[in-house]
Design a protein that fits this description.
Elements (H helix, E strand, L loop, with lengths): L1 H21 L24 H21 L10 H24 L4 H18 L10 H9 L1 H22 L5 H19 L3 H21 L8 H22 L6 H6 L1 H16 L12 H8 L9 H29 L4 H23 L12
Helix pairs in contact: 1-2, 1-8, 2-3, 2-8, 2-9, 3-4, 3-9, 4-6, 5-6, 6-9, 6-11, 7-8, 7-9, 7-13, 8-9, 12-13, 13-14
Amino acid sequence: MLSMMILSCAIALVAAVFFIRWARGHSKRYAQWIPQRFHVGDVPRVGGLAILIGTAAGWIFGAVSSSGEDALNVRLTWSFVGAWLAAVVPVVLGGAYEDMSQRVPVVVRLGLTGLSAALACWLLDLSVVRLSLPFVDGALAAVPWLAVLVAFVAISGLPHAFNIIDGYNGLAGTVTLLISLALAHVAMQVGDRSLAAILLCTAGATAGFLFWNYPRGLIFAGDGGAYLWGVVIAISSILLVKHHAEVSPWFPMLLLIYPVWETVFSIYRKLARGQSPGLADALHFHQLIYRRIVRGVFHDDEARRVLMRNNRTSPYLWGFTAFSVAPAVLFWKNTPVLMAFCALFVVTYVASYLMIVRFKVPRWLRRSR
């Protein structure tokens, strides 16, 4: 499996070079005034295509190897890989087209994630069969279509959650890397080498992309990259819990609590202010860290100054994510403990958000040098 991961990394890295050179003209269409822009210059936003190419190459290589002497000991069947590609490709290509044209309406993008979710549920027989909540689990067992609906909603929603946190160099990519490796680790613990291989290829391709994305900011993942990360991780989480009873359903929930809660809190925050949840703003947690914590960066060149602040924002959120990933990996079987850590994360997030909004951040956190 290591060879698959390395191959995915190398191909994504090379593909990103091509897109850095080829797609720079398209990046001029990215408006200068939108609130989520925190860089200077025209940077290609089609890194998702490089990640897709690298990931697909690793999956196909695994299927080819498995159809021979199974030298990789993975057993990736063509039908399994084909189902993954069928679920991922439409939404990534649609997101990449939006990244290049800025002309795809929100409703169309929602439809594309819904299409990928429907294909995944159909081709991979996905359903959320348990949540370790007695009443809910009883309903899911009694009404099979409800279990499929929950899986559909999860796969449709997570790509948009990753799109929300994809705001700074290395942020969403590193979060994806941590989560993918954590899921792959547990998949290996329960003997699911095929799922682990799928995740390691995604992690490898993401690492190849990150080589150019952080800290230099030469290419962004864009909607296409965020959608790929969300779909792959959502499908993997559902498969892992469905096929392995020893894995708590709250294990992937704790892994994903940062992007999920960021989305939920953003919806609540906008509704409370009388705004549409689909309206972009600059009040997400990572944006507040950029504006109110990462300050005092001085450089004669404006582009360099913005890049330095951009790069110093992501590590704050990496640490935040690590505090959820670490206990999830340690207690992946223990539902009560995982639930407690989810609650702790929510409380910590809200308290931190309010502290930043009210300008009560400790001085040592605001040091940028």
